[in-house]
């Protein structure tokens, strides 16, 4: 399957507020087609030059869009991270006093759910960053190929430094989150049989679905293609892929 | 210059032509041009080869602007003319075109003044929408004002998104941003040579626009260092309290609505300030800003952040799933027994597993991507070095072939023309082979390139054929 289609799939599975923030791969591709079909500059063509500059303009616009969305979400996450930490601290302090058991449990469950969702969203943001980067790399490669230009290499170097691709902070937050989660959750129960996993799904459908879809899409995208080059990523072989796939197919059962 | 109205459409494209075409510039028969062109493009092929090569490099690696996109094209245009034929007419015609377009830009830009430009330049988001809307609006309009905004917008606004947190370099020796500014500078400074009326306009530009200070571009290696350089040194994700603001190209004092990149430390300082002021409800943006005492932080940043902060506190964890569902969940949960509690926990654990796996894979993928690009860059460097040394070899052997070879090797490297596409494909293919065989690049590339540089039957035929011409 082509990248454009995969990207569309990803977008469909993604969280609602994010759907229009992805790279406009299709538009860029269309512009590229325009460039290729326009008569070459030598014959004094205006359309060619125009299409080319439109392409670059759109590229820059897209990068701006990606950056803004990413940084906004990053900001949100920073705030939420702090808030979660405070909530947990408050809860721990409360648990010292003789508060209602049920309330405590309810609060605990809520916090657990929230923090897992928070973790999930952050991972999805990194996925967002990566998917868009991949799209950019691909479209630039196509551009170079079709027009014989040399836009790709230097442009990609710049992209690598863009805020939306420098995801170190989010990664750090994620790791901190994982540590907190480990401390919040009781020791894991014995490993259930694989078949039982299907019966257990979570109410956070959006995030969970999106995560599963992201994993599978990543694997699909990295399957060998006809244009495999030393710039391509090696194929991704996830263990338990069939399990992950089954998670995707089964409709989520909301917790009663 | 009746062609002007038509030319206004392609101004962005012609910027590219201006910059890069110049590198391959030949001596022209136009009396008006030579002085301007020589000033602007000091490294003409007849005089020096190496600078020309370097000049080409900047052209093509100027990524952000349309320059690079068509540099190949232009490069080809000139190479074919300069190398293969004595078609001076052609080249001079194109130079005339270039010239007229170039002057078109300059007068456009200056007539409108650049203070407006820089106000917009500071807001990259606005810039882009302006640029593109201007672009589409002014297609058939010969109004110079809007065109000028577009013209100078390109180097500027393209600096913004792509040069933020620029700690890397495209080329070993030169910085992309410098090149952009140099390009813009060159185009502006050239006016002095054109006509007296344009001189006047230029003076106007220089007066109104201190940010874009012009230094005479004698060498391609000396660039006027603009303000963006300083601001761009801020690292992308800093752990410092210093706010990382995507750089603005000017200090024109416009209320920058630049997006600020928040960090946890910065947020800590924010929270402290808010608490000192009595909580999120009572704190005012102005107060918080004063208390925080962070340089570069504006009240807009604080305002929007405060808003987010308030929302986060009074509607805790509004995740993408429905929150009302969750409240119902909690009520139900509290009445359920332990078993379902465990089930829920297990479900959450599963979710965590999947998320962690995705994160892991993403990290791996990202590192791979970084390394791939790094390797690609390295290969490119090696390739260019080899070609250059190959050039030197050839230079030593046959002096009369110097000029065409110089011009030819560049387009060969860049493969701008469709008829040269075979060469580029060949090169790419060669590099692909290098990658796929997974030999260490240090060994493989020099072998390949040396083979190309010297006389071997294994070099890609088209390239050899071209050189033989």
From TrEMBL, chain A:
Matches recorded under Pfam families: SPX
InterPro entries in UniProt: SPX_dom, SPX_prot
Chain ranges of the SPX domain: 1-157
Gene transcribed to yield this protein: LOC113731763
Protein name: SPX domain-containing protein 3
Gene Ontology biological-process annotations: cellular response to phosphate starvation
From TrEMBL, chain B:
PROSITE patterns assigned: HTH_MYB (PS51294)
Biased composition (Low complexity): 226-238
InterPro entries on file: Homeodomain-like_sf (IPR009057), Myb_CC_LHEQLE (IPR025756), Myb_dom (IPR017930), Myb_dom_plants (IPR006447), PHR1-like (IPR046955), SANT/Myb (IPR001005)
SUPFAM superfamilies for this protein: Homeodomain-like
Residue stretches making up the HTH myb-type domain: 254-314
Gene3D superfamilies, per the entry: Homeodomain-like
Compositionally biased residues, Basic and acidic residues: 426-442
UniProt keyword list: Coiled coil, Nucleus, Transcription, Transcription regulation
Highest taxon, organism lineage: Eukaryota
Localisation per UniProt entry: Nucleus
Residue ranges of the region described as Disordered: 226-258, 402-469
Pfam family, one: Myb_DNA-binding
Coiled-coil region list: none
Keyword Metal-binding (UniProt): no
Main location: nucleus
Family: Belongs to the MYB-CC family.
NCBIfam families, per the entry: myb_SHAQKYF
Protein name as it appears in the record: Protein PHOSPHATE STARVATION RESPONSE 1-like isoform X1
UniProt lineage: Eukaryota, Viridiplantae, Streptophyta, Embryophyta, Tracheophyta
